[in-house]
Predict the structure.
Amino acid sequence: MTGGAILCGATREAGPQRASEERTILSKTAGQTSGVRDELHIYEAGRAGLPKIGPYVRDVLARWPFASEFSRSSIRSAHTDTVFGRLWLVLNPTLLAVVYFILVVILTGEEIKKGGPTLTRICCGLFLYTLFQGAVSSGAGSVTGGGALISRMAFPRLLMPLAAVRTSLFRFLPTLPVFLVLKLVLTKQPWGWEMLLSVYFLLLMVVFSAGLAAFMGALQVYFRDAGSFLPYFLRIWMYLSPVLWPLSKIGPDHSLYWLMLCNPMYSICGGWGEALLSSTVPPWHLWLVGLGWAVVSFVFGSLFFMSRERDFAVRI
């Protein structure tokens, strides 16, 4: 435990003598190492407010190995680090893509024998959206599901939704080789250098998911029923995004185009599909609008989470 730890259990204002005693205890338990800071931050439970951003960010970076190990333990507990576990990570979204493909074929009247490009397009969008859906769903329950950890350890609670996003990212990575094979076999299109541009939109999705996961993680502490409505909200969001339908369906000439730009998934998933599926350079406005949504989501979600963090211990 470093000298900059967050003490969430304090319920009354500590005087100078109390602060001196706590500083002595922390210095004895932490040891005389070069990484121990001289600062001591005491946050009272039940009072909302932002901590000092600088020390908090340094604590998050210093304790990131804890979040990584927490994420790895989640992966091990779900048995996704085994051969069959990794196989299921690929089969689950692929089978779901087949279900949506059959639904799209029925609604559009397309011949199923000529639906190879359609299936590839659905897999492209659905794999990325599964990353987002898993990160937000896991992040929403990360705080309420970690009550014992919160009450017994002092650490930046923001690491909990960030660890959930890390877990979803590592569960997403095995699906990339599957999509590359599907594109080569079903669409007969060669791989191009433009596909590397999809990494930018993948990073935008991770940042956007982290912000929304932090926001939902804090919100569910106060409104436990939010987790029950979240799956329906995410499903509707998917239907309104270029996941099951191509980006060209609502282009700049469409009457709903400017309204669709208000949907973060339109820019992020759309740019991802243009680069990875079509092997073309996405339009510049998708780069900028997607970046704006990712930054706004991460900043707002993180600040909201941090402002409510000291209240978690008395509400869980």
User: Anything to note?
Assistant: The beta strands are 6-10, 41-44.
